[in-house]
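[Automated response] Your request has been received and processed.

Submitted sequence:
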Amino acid sequence: MNKHLTRYVEIVGFSLLVFFTGYGLWMAGKGQEAFMDWLREDGLVENLTALFLLGSSAVGVYRSIGHYRLKAWKPMLTWSVIALLFFFGAGEEISWGQRIFEIETPRFFAEKNIQNEMNLHNLVICGVKVNMLVFSKMLFGVLAIYLLLLRPLASKLSWVNRLLCDFQVPLARWTYVIIWLVFMGIVNMINLVKAGELYEFIFSVMFLVIFLNPLIILPKDRKLS
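Generated structure:
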């Protein structure tokens, strides 16, 4: 990807993270009602989150097309999956445009969705909140492995190294990992309902930055570049 574009996204993304986490701390001091009003549905933070997620999906499409032209099928699969996952995330974030296009909530979602919205992450199935199970606990575990364990494992286990190399899995540079953890720590200081919206915004920004400037394991010498 173009280095100037990557640098521009880093500057804009990190600046927004600084602003929104700082502003979030300030709004949290005003109480739960003011904090929730700021992080309301279809508000600025939610829409920007969807935009950054869509940006990651676009990067996935761009890179998968490039690998397709090179007939590099495994990396193409990696980036195609990334494109689909982040497109799904962007759609879920704005309930697939339900409020934008004034779509009436289908019956299934009206009965199963705790917010009466046309999305999957707010469903309650057999008394289990999908958002809590899949998009919180499971996602947290996957992120911990991705950010903290994959690189050490790749340096210790040859089969992990080979797998990541063959599929050219985009890893996070340690600088990005540190930045991510710092902002997560700041948001963790906000013990209020809807603080999860800021976690999602951090997620969306950091993954776009990572995908634009990924760290890829090279073959043979197992070094990282």
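Summary generated for your ticket: The two ends are 14 Å apart (CA to CA). Residues 3-212 form one domain.
If you did not submit this request, please reply to this message.
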